[in-house]
Every structure is written in structure tokens, then in C-alpha cells.
Amino acid sequence: MSFFDWTFAWQILPRLLDASLATLGIALAGFAIAVVLGLFLALGRRSRLRWLAWPIAGLIEFIRSTPLLIQVYFLFYVLPNYGFQLSALQAGILGIAVHYACYTAEVYRAGLDAVPRAQWEAVTALNMRPWTAYRDVILPQALRPVLPALGNYLISILKDTPVLSAITVVEIMQRAKNIGSESFRYLEPITLVGLFFLILSLGLAWFVRRLEQRMEPVR
Amino acid sequence: MNTAPQMPLAAPAAQPMVRFAGVTKRYGELTVLDQLDLDVAPGEKVAIIGPSGSGKSTLLRVLMTLEDIDDGVIEVDGEPLTHMSGPDGALVRASSRHLRRMRGKVGMVFQSFNLFPHMDALHNVMEAPVQVLGLPKAEARERAEELLAMVGLQDKLEHFPAQLSGGQQQRVAIARALAMRPQVMLFDEVTSALDPELCGEVLNVIRRLGDAHNLTMLMVTHQMGFAREFADRVCFFHQGRIHEQGTPEALFGDPQQERTREFLSAVNEAH
């Protein structure tokens, strides 16, 4: 039984902070792609063209029903057999982006469904094209209420980045495991990683709550 | 007895601005418009009254292309609305391009206003002229300001719908529809969602509109007083058809059909 060694913790902190930048970068990049891709998935799923809507609905169900870990394994270890070679980082970001795009697509769908039908009738009566209607009338109303929900997915993504340590991405968790196997001390690195996620998640959650409050006075 | 020659009602020789020919609309088992025929002359003001479920609103909604029709042909300004001539001259379903061109001739004001909640009054009115008609912003702004002044809201340009009363919102909605310069304006129970004391301001705007422009207007309304004073013709709808129609004097003063009499006396009792 050993107790927390503050000196050792202080020593390894710079290496962990260095790797935390990778964690943050992966989370932000994955989130940025996911929110854009998710919007297109949501619009495609609502399309009247069945050949577009059905495969997208299937993809969303499939991705949401299988673990992220299997998806990133597939991208990193299986795709190269078919000539698609991705670096661990690329496979990791892509995996997170696609996985969470399928979740954000459902958030967008809820937002779009919440826009009253009457708004569609108004844009039809004004002869607006569907694209203009979405851009100027429907999306602005659909997005505001779902922004906080999207923010919550940023927190989820952040907490899921350690999954990528399984495909050799050196993010903060992988760095902590490396430190542990070098020094045979896991208590300090793993505790620090936990603290890192705790502080960031609480910070983001606070930010999302602020966002929620700012969104409320609409209508 | 007033025997002086008056403006002819629907001059039969002139081409109608709106024509319904055998139009049928069904929702599943329910037939809402039943082989409906109706001609509306250019500039004519037609009030449509009748019990709920009689097809009044559906008439306006199919004319605005918010609903498809199941049978018959609707013409606006001499051209089929939801059909077009196919290669062999027969009518086929209209392309979206044709629909868009035809839809530009018609404007609609809704019972629940349907303003864009995230835009102020000015931008509610400017949006479609800029995006649909391709007007330069300055010109669209000028047009919007003019119309909002016409409906008495020149000092509310930057107010959002939530900051306006129901009557004011409905007047913005009228300005928004007019900004597209339609030839036919449809009013679907535009005062039904308003407190009684706010109806007047909206009806006044419509009244002025009728005086100043040669707009063809179709108005579904429960305001019998307004229909009587404003309309050239009143149509009483019952079971998806025009059960009885005539000048306001004739229809309100001396209804010929039993069902019309029942409806009018029920309405009178309610007021």
C-alpha cells in the first residue's frame, strides 16, 4: 500500500499536460466534424428522397447501436486491409466524429421537428425555395433550443477520448499508462487524469448551463 | 330600393382571376371539397362563410398550394395552378418550377399569423422579396417600410413578433404577404385568434387594402358584419360545396336555403 506521492505527481505533470493538448485537440476536432456532419445526416434523413433518407436512417441506427471502441478498431485495424490507411490520430478523430454525428443528428432532428408546421406553410406561401427556407427560417429556429444538448455531447466526446488509447493514440490516458508502466506507479498518473477530466467536464458543463440560460428568453 | 347601376359583380365575359372547376379534395375517407366550381373575377372580394369542417379553409389552402387536390383543375389568371400542359396538350402535374411561378400570384394571411419569430417586423417583410424576388436589399427595405407604414406600424420596424400584440402581428403578416405583390390575396380567419378589441385594427387594414388596390381577395371569416360590408359576394359553404351564394344583401337579407338560414341564425344568436 503506498500513499499519494506529491513529488512524483509534480514531476509527471508536464508530460500529462502535454498529452492533454492531444486530448483537447481530438475532442474539439471530433466535435467540430460531428456537429456539421450530424446536421447533414439529419437533413438527409428528413429528405423526401427515400434512396437518401433510408440508408442514412440505417447508418444512424447502426452506429448508435455499436460501441465506439469497435468502430475505431475497425477504422484503424480493418480498413488498411482494403487499402485505406489512416494514422491512429486520423482514425480516432474520424471514429469519434462519425459516432457522435449520429447522436447530434438525432438532436437536430428533434430541433427540426419542434419547428411548427405553420412555419413551413408561411415559407411556402412566400414562395421560398427549400434551401432558403432551411437557411433563413427553419434552422435558426431549430438550432437555438438544441445548442445546449450539442454542448453536452462535447462533454461526452471529451470523456470518450481515452477509448483511442486502444488504437495507440497518445492522448492523456495513454500517456498516463505509459508513465505507469515505466515507473510501476499508477496511482498518481491515473488520479491526475481523472482530475483533468473532472475539471474540464465541470468547466464545460458550466459553460453549457450559461448557454442554456442565454437561450431561454427567445420567443 | 337602390336601382342605380352598380359595379357588375363577376363580369361573366372577363376571364376569371381564380377558377375552381370540379375540384375535389379528400382526407382519407373524408371529402372536404366536393366537385367544387367557383369563379372569382379580377378585383372581386369574396367572403366565404360556413360551419367548421365545411371546406372553407381547405379552399384557400389548395389555392395556396399548401395541399394537393385529388380531382379537378384550379386556374389562376387563366393558367392551371397545380397542372401544366404536357407534350400532347393534356394537363399533367405541374413541375416545381411551374408551381413556383404560379404561387407568386397568390399571397396568404393565416389565422395564427405565422411570422418568423427570430426576425423583427422589418425583416419578416423583407425576407421573401430579397430571397425570392431577388430585390436589392435597399429596395426591399423601402418596400417593407412603406407597407409597414400602410398597416400603421412605421414605429415598430425593429420589434420582434413576441414584442407585438396579436393585431400588430397580423398586420405585419399582411404587409409580408403584400410585399410579394400578389394578384390574389387569401385571408384565412385572420381575426379568429385575436381579442375582439384587436379585430378592428386588422379589419381596417383589409378595408383600406380593398379600397386602394385592385386586389382579388378571398376571405374566410366568421365576422358576418365585416363580410356584409366589405364583400362583393358571399359564399356559404356546406359539406365541401357552395351551398348558396349571392350579394351580401341577398345572402344575409334573404337566404334561400334552409341550411343557410340555420347557420346565420345560429351565428346571430352567438353574437
At a glance:
The complex is a heterodimer of chains A (219) and B (271). By secondary structure, chain A is an all-alpha fold.
Description:
The complex is a heterodimer of chains A (219) and B (271). Chain A has 8 helices and no strands. Chain A is mainly α. Chain A has a single domain, classed as MetI-like (MetI-like fold). In chain A, helix 1 packs across helix 8 and helix 2 crosses helix 4. Chain B has a domain at 110-181. Chain B has 9 helices and 12 strands. Chain B has a 6-stranded mixed β-sheet with strand order 8-9-10-3-11-12, with helices on both faces. A 4-stranded antiparallel β-sheet of chain B has the order 2-1-4-5, with helices on one face. In chain B, helix 3 (121-131) crosses helix 4 and helix 4 packs across helix 5 (166-178). Residues 1-8 of chain B have low confidence and may be disordered.
SSE blueprint and pairings:
The complex is a heterodimer of chains A (219) and B (271).
Chain A (H helix, E strand, L loop, with lengths): L5 H41 L3 H15 L3 H11 L9 H27 L2 H9 L4 H31 L11 H12 L3 H29 L4
Helix pairs in contact in A: 1-2, 1-4, 1-6, 1-7, 1-8, 2-4, 3-4, 4-6, 6-8, 7-8
Chain B lengths: L17 E10 L2 E11 L4 E5 L6 H8 L7 E6 L2 E2 L2 E3 L5 E3 L2 H8 L2 E4 L11 H11 L5 H14 L15 H13 L5 E5 L7 H17 L3 E5 L3 H7 L2 E6 L2 E6 L1 H6 L4 H13 L1
Parallel strand pairs in B: 3-10, 3-11, 8-9, 9-10
Antiparallel strand pairs in B: 1-2, 1-4, 4-5, 6-7, 11-12
Helix pairs in contact in B: 3-4, 3-5, 4-5, 5-6
